[in-house]
């Protein structure tokens, strides 16, 4: 018996019980060494300070409020993964003003309603990672995650397998959620 890999379906490999999900778009995140565009930490480099300066479509902004706004996560855990951010560059929830915290809460509730109606999700993961040590990818700017979940989604496969299959393109998700957002 040879130690050479077996050729299966035109590719080198040994058959096993695992299916492969090829998601090359994730290389942008992997190549960034998980630091994202905010590696320098300066306010001018903050993606959440820069996003509101762009068009809604370019920045994937679903809704703009008075103190906070909602946009799609560029590196989503699930299709429809939204972020609710204050416009002001502030790192921690307890540093948000009363008005900012109230609008973040209200926009989070609206995001849940829109996702439940538009994406027909079964549940949500909602939360904030405060500081680098807590897992915040952009620790310098407060943001709340609103992640829709479905009964049949892959659950924590991204954590274990470092892969996530997303069935809908970001642009299509943005257009759908933007049009579903109440006026």
UniProtKB/TrEMBL annotation:
Residue span of motif Histidine triad motif: 141-145
Keywords: Nucleotide-binding
Keyword Manganese: no
InterPro entries according to UniProt: AP-4-A_phosphorylase, FHIT, HIT-like, HIT-like_sf
Claim: Oxidoreductase is one of the keywords in the record: no
Cited Gene3D superfamilies: HIT-like (3.30.428.10)
TM spans (from-to): none
Alphabetized Pfam families for the sequence: HIT
Database matches in PROSITE patterns: HIT_2
Domain of life: Bacteria
Protein name: HIT domain-containing protein
HIT domain sequence ranges: 47-156
């Amino acid at each position: 018996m040879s130690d050479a890999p077996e050729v299966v379906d035109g590719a080198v490999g040994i058959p096993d019980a695992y299916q492969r999900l090829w998601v090359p778009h994730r290389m942008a995140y992997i190549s960034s060494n998980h630091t994202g565009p905010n590696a320098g930490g300066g306010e001018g480099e903050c993606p959440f300070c820069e996003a509101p300066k762009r068009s809604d479509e370019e920045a994937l902004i679903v809704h703009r409020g008075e103190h906070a706004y909602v946009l799609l996560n560029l590196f989503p855990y699930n299709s429809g993964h939204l972020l609710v951010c204050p416009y002001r560059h502030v790192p921690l929830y307890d540093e948000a003003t009363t008005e900012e915290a109230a609008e973040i809460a209200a926009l989070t509730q609206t995001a849940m309603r829109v996702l439940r109606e538009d994406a027909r999700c079964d549940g949500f993961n909602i939360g904030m990672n405060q500081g680098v040590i807590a897992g915040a990818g952009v620790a310098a700017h407060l943001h709340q995650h609103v992640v829709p979940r479905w009964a049949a989604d892959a659950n924590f496969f991204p954590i274990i397998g470092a892969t996530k299959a997303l069935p809908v393109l970001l642009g299509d998700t943005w257009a759908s959620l933007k049009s579903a957002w109440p006026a």
